[in-house]
Specification:
The complex is a heterodimer of chains A (163) and B (249). With 163 residues, chain A is an all-alpha fold. Chain A is 67% helix and 0% strand. Chain A starts with a helix and ends with a helix. The chains are: A mainly alpha (163), B alpha+beta (249).
Chain lengths: 163, 249
């Protein structure tokens, strides 16, 4: 499936469980199939699929929302795979963001949509997308602290040795 | 450009959406303002970390794919409303949404009797070339077509541009009379059969496309006409021809 993987990646970061994410993607693809007559042949199929995904997500309300993790980041809970360590830290930071901020980061930074495309997907003005992206980036950086990935990797190296 | 203006344009800079003039001003500012330059590179580093973190996670969609295909197949066979534009809408949607590779797989396993009969007929008469009385002159073919409510002009119009009418005869498929039209391309290597019935006896039933042995069959219903396309060409040739005919009939 050409776009299912992108949809699943984003769904996983928005929903509360892997099962909820799979259900959301499945429902999105079926809705796309049912409503295919509404799709404009010259427009962007990927953006259209994401719009369905997000509409479904918001329509299903809170039950799908991811709950920010309550577990603090402690050395004991770290993985022993150093390469995954930074990913885990970034993931936790992302999960702790408000859903609106998480959404624009996933669409704009990870999936590579333009601000104009995101505006279409979310059905909001482009100015809103730009300010949301700026605030989301700021929030992400605040949560990640001032550390650069290099420092994070170095810390991981020590941690791995300590274990 | 001020620092405030540069900061507010950063989202557009990252997505490559700044127009030429603003991109030039933005570059000029960040080259001369160390604070904005540092801000830009910090943000790029965080973006890169975010991308790497999310993209590193494998996304296995095999289970979802199979559930979606099953669900589409079930709905495609039960939805009466899908019938009229069965082929064009259902097939196009399935192809775009779940990818072409899965298309044949999601079709119902048992083709309708009319589909099977059409495939057999095409195989015996066109592939094996068993002798039959064919009509090739357009005047007598027009007579046959008129009985099915199909105009002379429609005979050539329903074939894609690279095909021309070759021959026709009446045949019986699963107890129903069809006009069997044969078309081939200019090289004579690609051929297809079009079976038309003007009384819409619903023999295409709930099946829209199928593969039978070496033949691919695709059918559609439009108004009073039931049509089936049979060809030995691989892939979605039958589907494309049927889609073309559905829009031209």
């Amino acid at each position: 499936m050409p776009h299912a993987q992108s949809l699943l990646r984003v769904a996983r970061r928005m929903t509360s469980s892997p099962v909820a994410a799979e259900d959301l993607v499945q429902e999105t693809l079926l809705a796309a199939w049912r409503n295919f007559h509404q799709f404009q042949p010259d427009s962007n199929i990927r953006a259209w699929l994401f719009r369905i995904l997000l509409n479904n997500f918001y329509a299903q309300g809170r039950k799908l929302r991811a709950v920010p993790p309550m577990v603090p980041l402690t050395p004991g809970s770290q993985t022993v795979f150093p390469v995954l360590d930074d990913a885990m830290e970034v993931s936790r930071a992302l999960e702790s963001l408000e859903i609106e901020h998480r959404t624009v980061l996933l669409l704009g930074v990870v999936e590579g949509f333009t601000c104009r495309e995101i505006a279409g997907i979310l059905e909001v003005p482009i100015g809103t997308v730009m300010s949301r992206l700026s605030r989301a980036r700021q929030a992400m950086r605040t949560r990640l602290g001032a550390r650069s990935p290099g420092v994070a990797f170095a810390a991981t190296g020590n941690l791995t040795k300590a274990i | 450009m001020t620092c405030v203006a540069a900061t507010s344009l950063m989202p557009l800079y990252f997505t490559g959406e700044l127009d030429e003039a603003r991109a030039r001003e933005f570059a000029k500012h960040t080259q001369s303002c160390p604070e904005c330059a540092r801000e830009l590179s910090r943000q790029m580093a965080v973006d890169a970390r975010l991308r790497a973190a999310v993209l590193a996670e494998p996304a296995d969609t095999a289970a979802i794919e199979s559930r979606v295909k099953q669900s589409i197949a079930a709905q495609a066979t039960s939805r009466r409303s899908a019938r009229r534009w069965a082929l064009t809408a259902v097939a196009a949607a399935a192809v775009v949404v779940i990818g072409y590779a899965g298309y044949w797989a999601l079709l119902p396993p048992k083709p309708s009797p009319a589909f099977a009969a059409a495939a057999r007929d095409h195989h015996m008469e066109i592939v094996e070339g068993q002798p039959r009385r064919w009509r090739t002159d357009i005047a007598s073919v027009s007579d046959l077509a008129a009985r099915e409510g199909i105009s002379t002009a429609a005979i050539s119009r329903i074939a894609p541009p690279d095909y021309h009418f070759q021959q026709a005869r009446l045949c019986r498929l699963d107890g129903v009379i069809y006009l069997h039209l044969v078309y081939s391309d200019n090289t004579g290597t690609r051929t297809f059969s079009m079976f038309l019935n003007g009384q819409n006896q619903n023999h295409v039933g709930k099946v829209y496309a199928s593969s039978l042995g070496a033949e691919h069959v695709a059918g559609f219903e439009d108004g009073h006409v039931t049509a089936m396309v049979v060809t030995g060409q691989a892939g979605d040739a039958a589907l494309k021809i049927a889609r073309f005919a559905a829009s031209a009939i």
